[in-house]
Amino acid sequence: MTTTTTPLETTELESKVRSYSRSWPVSFTRAQGSTLTAEDGRDYIDFFAGAGALNYGHNHPELKKVLLDHILEDRVVHGLDMFTDVRRQFLETFRSSILEPRGLDYTVAFPGPGGANAVEAALKLARKVTGRESIVNFTNAFHGMTLGALSVTGNSLKRGGAGVPLVHATPMPYDDYFDQVVPDFMYLERLLTDAGSGLNKPAAVIVEAVQGEGGINAARAEWLRGLSELCKKHEILLILDDIQMGCGRTGGFFSFEEAGIEPDMVTLSKSISGYGLPMALTLIKPELDIWEPGEHNGTFRGPGPAFATATKAIELFWSDDELERSTGTKGAFIESRFNQLAARFEDHQLVVKGRGLARGLEMPSGELAGKVSSLAFERGLLVETSGPSDEVIKLLPALTIPDDQLTAGLDIIDEAVAEVLSA
Amino acid sequence: MTTTTTPLETTELESKVRSYSRSWPVSFTRAQGSTLTAEDGRDYIDFFAGAGALNYGHNHPELKKVLLDHILEDRVVHGLDMFTDVRRQFLETFRSSILEPRGLDYTVAFPGPGGANAVEAALKLARKVTGRESIVNFTNAFHGMTLGALSVTGNSLKRGGAGVPLVHATPMPYDDYFDQVVPDFMYLERLLTDAGSGLNKPAAVIVEAVQGEGGINAARAEWLRGLSELCKKHEILLILDDIQMGCGRTGGFFSFEEAGIEPDMVTLSKSISGYGLPMALTLIKPELDIWEPGEHNGTFRGPGPAFATATKAIELFWSDDELERSTGTKGAFIESRFNQLAARFEDHQLVVKGRGLARGLEMPSGELAGKVSSLAFERGLLVETSGPSDEVIKLLPALTIPDDQLTAGLDIIDEAVAEVLSA
Amino acid sequence: MTTTTTPLETTELESKVRSYSRSWPVSFTRAQGSTLTAEDGRDYIDFFAGAGALNYGHNHPELKKVLLDHILEDRVVHGLDMFTDVRRQFLETFRSSILEPRGLDYTVAFPGPGGANAVEAALKLARKVTGRESIVNFTNAFHGMTLGALSVTGNSLKRGGAGVPLVHATPMPYDDYFDQVVPDFMYLERLLTDAGSGLNKPAAVIVEAVQGEGGINAARAEWLRGLSELCKKHEILLILDDIQMGCGRTGGFFSFEEAGIEPDMVTLSKSISGYGLPMALTLIKPELDIWEPGEHNGTFRGPGPAFATATKAIELFWSDDELERSTGTKGAFIESRFNQLAARFEDHQLVVKGRGLARGLEMPSGELAGKVSSLAFERGLLVETSGPSDEVIKLLPALTIPDDQLTAGLDIIDEAVAEVLSA
Amino acid sequence: MTTTTTPLETTELESKVRSYSRSWPVSFTRAQGSTLTAEDGRDYIDFFAGAGALNYGHNHPELKKVLLDHILEDRVVHGLDMFTDVRRQFLETFRSSILEPRGLDYTVAFPGPGGANAVEAALKLARKVTGRESIVNFTNAFHGMTLGALSVTGNSLKRGGAGVPLVHATPMPYDDYFDQVVPDFMYLERLLTDAGSGLNKPAAVIVEAVQGEGGINAARAEWLRGLSELCKKHEILLILDDIQMGCGRTGGFFSFEEAGIEPDMVTLSKSISGYGLPMALTLIKPELDIWEPGEHNGTFRGPGPAFATATKAIELFWSDDELERSTGTKGAFIESRFNQLAARFEDHQLVVKGRGLARGLEMPSGELAGKVSSLAFERGLLVETSGPSDEVIKLLPALTIPDDQLTAGLDIIDEAVAEVLSA
What is the CA radius of gyration of chain A? Predict the structure, then answer.
């Protein structure tokens, strides 16, 4: 196949809002594991993994088999919230292999196909349960682009896109926002206990255990525990948004396991289907599940193929602790490589960030980080940036990435960083 | 297959918000065309078609083949908004086979996987373009369950679920809201021209050409034209929500073709993939496409399998006018059968509603309509109700339903209506 | 006194927001009854009466005596909501001479010094009582300029000044908004009974019996009764804003007496003190008075001098029906003069509007009405315009205006209208 | 005089929202200087001064003379925003005696009769000027009870009274909110500079130099300067609410003089008339005065008597620095007495607070502070409490209070505190 049909022609058909195709101006055609192949046949190592939607890599062979069978056998593909065999199998497997081993008790809502639906559903239910409107979110949070989810998201460009004032949310400092000068929750706790503070008492706090879009900011376990206790003390619901960091990204299935907390609601999406298919869950403590039938609904809440692959993915990856250990090992390897880089360029004060296989390298500026990403792309590596100024090189490789690809990708980053910082 | 694995056990795992599984308490396992098969082997005729997401029936063989090939060949399944070959093919086919033949010029945004994402994106852009916040929606509108979409939705149960006051929207009477006593748009036009009316000047009007959830209310073509002219005159954007009624449901690909209008934005989802896979589009007049890159984004905006089936569905069904004519014929057949029913039970003042293959039979009450739906289910037909009191028996059969199944289903409705009204 | 100290010099000290001093660019120094005297000694007939704040004319001699005594005797001038003798006397007199004779039972809140405070207090309490946020207001309503009051006000210039989207209010057509084509409340009632209408169920309806700022639109008694019944039926509170039309402006003390309704809350201000002193009341049906102590407060809620003059004004003017009858007579006289004018210039389709001594003459345009007002000023008459385009010549003379001044003022209007329409 | 006309009978006529009459259940009849006299003839020392509206005491003889003359001569009492001689005289005197000597340049808007009107006007204009909606306010702020002013007020009881979610405001820590652990503005500055913070960029910051209702919290001059610089740096308008602390309460005419800052807007009310008459100003930097004529208006914006007394009060008290020095001396005296009290009861950790003649003594609890206030009342002293738990004994005596009354009042407080803390 030639590149005569350049993607550029297509761009006129598509809205100016497109973004990734600007950073990586090639057209991809095939994908397997951690490799993406462009139309011109060139292979790229994928350190991006669908922004966390492909924790098990592209088109995993065993999931693919299940998916093909589902389609071949004319099983139900679209079922809204009707009962189907695959829906039940997913629910049973999720309970027996994910919730029960972790001592967690949640009912599962299917709020719609994407992460924003899961967040919207959680916010709605938190407000219904408490009778309050306000939500506390955190600096540099990302929870989605629909109006409710956007109101608790930090990014000012995205907030500006709302076209209406975003209200009902008050941002609080995330862990380490002030370089540990300030005691955790000092401000939030003071506002909550001061009857004259002017803070509308929140229905819920929504938090990510590791902020991906915000720049790979990993909250400490003790900070999460402190937050959980603060919420309990003030009868505020805790919503843990595990859309990007769940499904094993930080090691355990849930990113909050390490902290030993039990949030009131948990949102999951991205990698839950295991195959990059749209699917989302809102997990709800049973006593909070006070919804009327149909009070929240939607068209794509019964995705048969995604149920099938999601069930299989749990069986494959979460029957033992192999993946979790491997994630720890690979994460530590990246950290060690990044530490070496930081030491090598210590004048530039690179900051090594993250947990598990959510890893970041903070560059001195967004411009420099962008150059690293561009050079990496030229050398055959897909890696994006995040953070308020896009100053963090953000690594979200598939958890299943082979060691040689991981090493090859990191070598490319080394070279790109070196080239950029030596310029 | 036995029913020992009853769905009832599963219900404890799932949130109380589930609804369809309450009306149809069996578990489905296979689907083909207009037939759904339960775990106990019983077949059901499907007059529901995934609430309009399955206009070409379940698991259409030719789409299935394309889907299998896509998966077998490890083509890109999840690609955010990166360029892919299937993305380009879809865009080109959509332009050449759908937009150009209809003389329409739109850029295409992929706003996320579901219809609510398409609506949220349209509302955001309308506000950005105009610098205004307010939206005019219509009585009994349904546009989705995320906070922005919900604020322009009519249903009070669903609105109540928001947990915050829904603002920035003012409902106006939909066509025929007052049994033609009142001139069209009298109230809206008066409010727009009166500087003291207290109506915040709207950024946009959002409308469905036929209201599905609202009770199969079909606006007349002249009403839609009048609305379009009113919007132009007052420099208000017109958003046509074609999520449920597009993709041929009313005959033409777009439900607004008949009226000869050209909305400023159009939302599509549900049947656009042709296979029940999550996918959504926001069509935007090029001069309004003023978004910054990434100002609206999301994880599931590059669904490879859905691009593949969507492209094939357009090729299969929209290369000629066969489907459109068949939809007209079948719709007329339903109308004629409903008219007979209404005549037979004229004391009960049944109202026959709809256009194309979106058809409704309004019963004297929601209770009676619910009984008809239940009896139909017992007799092997899936048909739901809609309308503010669920008083309308709502038929959304696949456009491809064979005549014998259509007749068989209508016979069941006849029997059920007769049983209910003769009781 | 010369005019060397022209007002123009002062204008630089004052914000550009000033308005009346633009229409009437002279500086006034003395006032008595219906005569205002400028610094250059020229007298003006006052058909404006402080926008309804001077129903008993400027500086009424008997009220003046009471006011002087209050001040001379060092009685309490500023008392917040402490008990004072004058506060008690006012409350007792208001009850015995105003409420009891009309069979009304209200508790009295002193919400602050101005009308907007009275409206804000009523809206807050209505929301607290019902637990709902939304308010229904009417086209061309005017209720004040603070954020809560402004949100239920119609004028687009004033609304635009808010700087935030004004929400929680939905405008409904006021009486005769569609020239009687449409049955009263057809739209509102339909929205309230349709569970899918998208109207947030309102806490309250707020209405003026005659809209002053809106263009002297007088609602029919049967319309007000219909509105009152509709509110009762749907358990929505009825707030009657009598700030401009109360205290006898339309004949009876309350503008709603004629309709025989009993609103849930009534707001009064403007002429309540009788002397143009800031004072306001929110009248509340006792069973709705569920406020916590201090839940609404403010600095100027115990204006001693205003209590004194208000009490005296009630004694003077509301012990018998003399004023009410005189208002009827004078109002009929204006109406008759306006009808003659309209007949004389029938090609121009002047519209005669109003009730009691709130009277309007609608000119073909705001420009023409403005010219009439300017010419009248040149001839020694103060008369303002109102309505959405300022197209209504608005007469609010003191209720106590002597017949000769009333006639002289009407003669000036005759001349001015003739000059403008003959040009 | 007997108490047969007990105030208790009157209470049934008045809304339950009344508050001061609950703390001080007697009816007052006369007032002079710092003495209030009840109907039973008993005199009370006034350490409350109309919550700061009577900085020059009750019914000051020279202001009284001016007021009587105004009324006797039938000068204009009610004039909306028409030009009047007294309006001009006030504006000229305010400019020449207040603004010019302090090197300040403001245009003056008369936003309505009370402080809340001044705040509402300032917020509206700040939003219009900047095109932004959000406001930063401070913990324990008090700015008024109308919807716009209430949204920037801290007290949760009062906020709860709104009945709608209060939005568009984000509370920031006031000076010394964390006992100086945290650098000033650390949080606000970080949020403003972080593009991902989630803080809607504010139109304005609104602040009191000393928080009266919030518990007599006096910001340090350097904190105010820092705030002013921060606002300038980020192009955010600074609104200084001087309603309670202006007109000499803290020494200088404006409470912010000491800090040497020049706010973009200043609100004044309470003591501006000098006689407890309703009057309010919004001072606006000329370049920000972009209002359209009439874009903000209201009925009571031309209070003739208040203009007269306000002008005289400026002449009397602000032609030299005598009052300012006296306020400093008296304030220091109170502080010294409070320090002695705190030393005497050091186990109870009383906190001495305030500046000028705004002074507070923080008791260990609101209950104890309330007992002190009650005992003081029994002993003939009116003194209220403030702060989030009403734990601060709040002294706002007239600036003109004679030394013997000041001492007598402080003796009563000593006794009351001793009785309460020794119990």
Answer: 21
In this structure, what token pair is assigned to residue B131? 């610098």
Contact D107, D288 (CB under 8 A): no
State the average pLDDT for chain B.
95
Say how far apart CA D92 and CA D226 lie, in whole Å: 32
Mean of pLDDT values over D26-32: 97
Touching B (3+ Cβ pairs <8 A), the chains are A, C, D
- Is a pLDDT exceeding 70 seen at residue A6? no
Chain A residue whose CA is closest to D202 = A165
Chain A residue with the nearest C-alpha to that of C164? A165
Q: How far is CA C311 from CA A216, A315, B310, C82, C89, in A?
A: 70, 84, 78, 18, 7
Q: Which residues of A, range 153-192, sit inside 8 Å of C by Cβ?
A: 164-165
The pLDDT assigned to B293 comes to: 96
| Partners of residue A165 in chain C, C-beta under 8 Å | 164-165
In this prediction, residue D10 has a pLDDT band, given cuts at 50, 70 and 90, of low
Q: Are D291 and C15 in contact (CB under 8 A)?
A: yes
Q: Can you give the pLDDT at residue A291?
A: 96
The boundaries of every CATH 3.90.1150.10 domain in chain D are: 9-60+323-422
Work out the minimum CA distance from C48 to partner chain D, whole angstroms: 10
Note whether C117 contacts D114, CB cutoff 8 Å.
yes
Q: Are C74 and D30 in contact (CB under 8 A)?
A: yes
Q: Where in chain A is the domain with CATH 3.40.640.10?
A: 75-317
- Look up the CATH architecture of domain A75-317: 3-Layer(aba) Sandwich (3.40)
Which tokens is A317 given? 């990856």
User: From CA D46, how far away is CA C78, in angstroms rounded?
Assistant: 12
Q: Does the CB of C401 have a partner CB in chain D at under 8 Å?
A: no
What tokens were used for D197? 């913070």
CA-nearest residue to B164 within chain D is D165
- Chain C adjacent subunits, 3+ CB pairs under 8 A: A, B, D
- Domain made up of B9-60+323-422: CATH architecture: Alpha-Beta Complex (3.90)
Dig out the tokens for C410 from the structure: 């009407």
Interface contact A75-B13, CB threshold 8 A? no
Q: What is the ipTM of this complex?
A: 0.96
Does pLDDT of D7 surpass 90? Answer: no
Pairwise CA distance, residues C121 & C108, whole Å: 11
Q: Which helix (H) or strand (E) holds D237?
A: strand D237-241
| 3-state secondary structure string across B286-318 | HHHCCCCCCCCCCCCCCEHHHHHHHHHHHHHHC
Strand ranges of the sheet holding D43-46, from the earlier edge strand across to the other edge: C83-84, D27-32, D35-38, D43-46, D381-382
Give which of B89, B83, B106 is closest to B253, Cα–Cα: B106
Query: Contacts of residue D182 in chain A, CB cutoff 8 Å?
Result: 181-182, 186
Give dist(CA C398, CA C313) in Å, integer. 14
Contacts of D131 in chain A (CB under 8 A): none
Q: What SS3 class is residue A358?
A: strand
D159 in Cβ contact with A194 (< 8 Å): no
Q: Which residue has the tokens 């994006």?
A: A384
Residues of chain C in contact with residue B182, where contact means CB-CB under 8 angstroms, are 181-182, 186
Instruction: Name the one residue in this structure whose structure tokens are 């082997």.
Output: B41
Tokens of D240: 């200084």
Asked whether the beta carbons of residue C295 and residue D79 sit closer than 8 angstroms, the reply is no
Query: Does the beta-carbon distance from C77 to D58 stay under 8 Å?
Result: yes
Chain A residues within 8 A of C164 when measuring between CB atoms: 165
d(CA D313, CA D248): 11
pLDDT grade for D9, boundaries at 50, 70 and 90: low
Round to whole Å and give the CA distance between A292 and A273: 27
**Percentage of chain B modeled with pLDDT above 70:** 97
Chain D neighbours among A 126-155 (CB < 8 Å)? 133-134, 137-141, 152-155
